[in-house]
């Protein structure tokens, strides 16, 4: 019994290692075409629909979510700040939270949930119906035709979604703090300007690019390797979101740590920030 459990654990571990190897191989194949450039593989017509589907259709939802996230932040933090007489500093904590953390992560989770699952389901259906094999028989690389446009669209559009999320989150915090609680508007914006700078905006956008790359690769990989017919397609879509969400959280930590350590190297002094 004990040996059986050890064997099962070993098999599970080996399956995970093999899966990681397959994902690395798949990613390298995608990068091979990605670095050749959109123009060289000559399929700009394949990129435009993905940009529209992944980005444009998601922006209204991400704006609505960003607005209410900013408002909730203001409501939850006002009493604590007001008790210490620093309510006008709410702008700093709300806006830097939105720009560096909430905006990029919210856009990434939205992309993983709305788009990642759809991409996995679409490619998974093509896989189980042997459309991918048909492309290979015709001498076309499915990665170049199907994966690269979707990965590029994710990388390009998620920073745009992040900007919209940031704008609406900042606006939502302003509405509640200034218009709702009566905090002095000039002081609110001045404190925000003192703490939120171009570096914070850059950090958020760099994170979003990494999130987009991870989501695009994971979603396409899950679709390309799904099994079991219609049930397998549904499982691939679910696994895509779960794996993408885990990747977002892990990447967010390591990017935050890396960029925090890079700041004094780039600018020669320590960076004082809320994060």
Q: Major beta sheet, specifics? A: none
The CA-CA distance between the termini, in Å, is: 49 Å
Share of helical residues = over 70%
Strand content: under 5%
Order of helices and strands: HHHHHHHHHH
Q: Ranges with pLDDT <50 over ≥5 residues? A: none
Please give the number of β-strands: 0
Shape: elongated
Instruction: Give the number of helices.
Output: 10
Number of domains as seen in the coordinates:
1
Radius of gyration: 22 Å
Q: What integer is the average pLDDT?
A: 84
Structural class: mainly alpha
In short:
The protein is mainly alpha-helical. The protein has ten helices and no strands.
Q: How is this structure best described in words?
A:
The chain is built from 10 helices and no strands. The chain has 275 residues and is an all-alpha fold. It has one domain (2-267). Helix 1 (2-36) crosses helix 7 (142-180) and helix 5 (90-128) packs across helix 8. The longest helix is centred in the middle third of the chain and has 39 residues, at 90-128.
Kindly list the characteristics that best describe this protein:
single chain; 275 residues; mainly alpha
Task: Break the fold down into its secondary structure elements and pairings.
Blueprint: H1 2-36, H2 38-41, H3 44-56, H4 59-83, H5 90-128, H6 131-137, H7 142-180, H8 185-195, H9 198-224, H10 229-267
Helix pairs in contact: 1-7, 3-7, 4-5, 4-7, 5-7, 5-8, 5-9, 5-10, 7-9, 9-10
């Amino acid at each position: 019994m004990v040996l059986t459990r050890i064997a099962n654990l070993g098999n599970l571990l080996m399956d995970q290692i093999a899966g990681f190897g397959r994902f690395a191989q798949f990613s390298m194949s995608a990068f091979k075409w990605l670095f050749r450039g959109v123009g060289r593989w000559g399929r700009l017509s394949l990129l435009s629909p993905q940009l529209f589907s992944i980005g444009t259709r998601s922006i209204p939802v991400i704006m609505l979510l960003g607005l209410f996230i900013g408002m909730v932040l203001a409501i939850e933090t006002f009493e604590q700040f007001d008790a210490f007489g620093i309510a006008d500093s709410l702008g700093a904590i709300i806006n830097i939270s939105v720009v560096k953390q909430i905006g990029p992560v919210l856009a990434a989770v939205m992309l993983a949930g709305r788009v990642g699952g759809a991409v996995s389901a679409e490619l998974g259906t093509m896989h189980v119906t042997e459309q991918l094999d048909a492309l290979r028989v015709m001498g076309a690389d499915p990665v170049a035709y199907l994966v690269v446009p979707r990965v590029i669209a994710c990388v390009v559009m998620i920073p745009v979604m992040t900007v919209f999320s940031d704008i609406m989150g900042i606006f939502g915090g302003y509405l509640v703090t200034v218009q709702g609680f009566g905090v002095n508007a000039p002081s609110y914006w001045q404190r925000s300007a003192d703490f939120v700078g171009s570096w914070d905006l850059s950090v958020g956008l760099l994170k979003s690019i990494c999130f987009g790359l991870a989501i695009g690769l994971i979603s396409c990989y899950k679709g390309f390797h799904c099994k079991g017919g219609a049930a397998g397609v549904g499982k691939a879509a679910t696994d895509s979101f779960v794996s993408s969400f885990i990747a977002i959280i892990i990447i967010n930590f390591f990017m935050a740590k890396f960029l925090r350590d890079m700041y004094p190297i780039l600018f020669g002094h320590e960076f004082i920030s809320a994060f």
